[in-house]
Amino acid sequence: DMELTQKQAQEYKRSTKRQRSTIIDRYCKLTGVCRNVASKRFRKVVRNEKPEVLKKSAGKNRGRKPTYTGVHKNIIKMAWELSGEICGERLHPMMSEYIHELRIFGKLSAFDQSHVQEVETVSEATLKRMIITFPRTRTGKKKGNDSLYKQIPINAHFGSNAHKPGYVEIDYVEHNGGNSAGQFGITGCYVDVCLGWITRSAALGKSKEAVGLIHDANEERIYHHVFEYHPDNAKPILKLLLERRLNPKVLYYAISQSRPYHKEDNGHVEQKNGDKVRKLVGYHRYDRTEQIELLNQLYEVEDEISNYFVSSQKLKEKVVDDYGRVVSRKHTKAKTAYQRLVESGKISKTVKEKVKNIRKGLR
C-alpha cells in the first residue's frame, strides 16, 4: 500500500488538474479509501520529499513580474529621505525635482539610468505602498517628567494639617481672557491651611523664571516657617521647589503634590482662587508688563486687608444623617489670619512681634 501511494503521489504531483482527478479515482478504487483521504496521503508524500525535489517541481511563478525591484525602491527611499520623509501624496508631484537634485550631487551615479527614469514615472499608489515600508527616523523625544514626579510624594489628605501652621497650599490662576495663545499673566496664590494666611503675586508667562518671581514675592510675606509646600502638578513650581530645597542656606521644607484632576486635594487654595483672585481682578486678559505691576501693587494691599482685617471661619464638624448626607456644618468662631497666628502656640515670639508691628502700622 505504501509503495502504491508513493508511486501515485509522484504521478499526482506532475499531472494537471483534470488528470489528478482521474488518479484519485483510480487510487480510491484500488485502496477503498475516500477522495479526501487520498488527497491527504498524496500531499503528505509530497511534503516529505527532499527540498531539491520540491524546488524542481515547483514550476514557474504565476502572474506578471514586478515592475519595480529593490533597485527602484532604493532610489525612491533616497528621494523620500531628501524630502524630509514626507507622505506619498506630497512626494509624488515633486519626485522629478528630487531625482534631479540627487543627480546633481552624484547620488545616483551607481544606478542604471533606465531605473532612474522608471522611478520618475512611478504612480502615486505604488509610491505610497513603497513609502509605508520605509523605517522612519525616530526624532529625539523630550525627556519625560516621570523622574520629577517620582521624587515628590502625592498627599491626598493635605487638609489634615489644618490644626498646625506652616503647611501651605499653592495654586496658579491664568489671566488669558479665554484665549491661551501667546504670553499672558498668572497669579500664584499661597494659603496656609491652618491660619488662612494668604499671599498673592503675579508674573508674566508660565516659565520657571516667572514662577520664581512669584515664589520669592509670596515667601517674603509669609513670616513664619513653612514646613511643607503642597502645589498642584505644575512642573515649573515643582522643579523650583526641588532646586531651592538643595540650597544649604534655605531652611528645609517638605514637598508634596496633589493627585491629577483632583481639585479637592488643594481645597483651601482652590476656594481662595475664586474669592480672592477672580472676584478681585476678574477674567480679563493681562499680557502687558504694566498690567502685571498693577496686579502686584493691588495684591500687596489686598493681602494686608485679607490677613489682618477680614475674618473667616474654619469648618469644625459635619453632621450627617443615616444615609451619609451632610445635614449641617459647625464652624469655629470667626477670626482673622493675624489673630490665629498671634494665638498659635507653635509660632515663635519673634514672628509674632514682627506681625504685631506690621499691624500697628496699618491704618
From TrEMBL:
It comes from the Bacteria. This is Integrase catalytic domain-containing protein. It comes from candidate division WWE3 bacterium CG_4_10_14_0_2_um_filter_41_14.
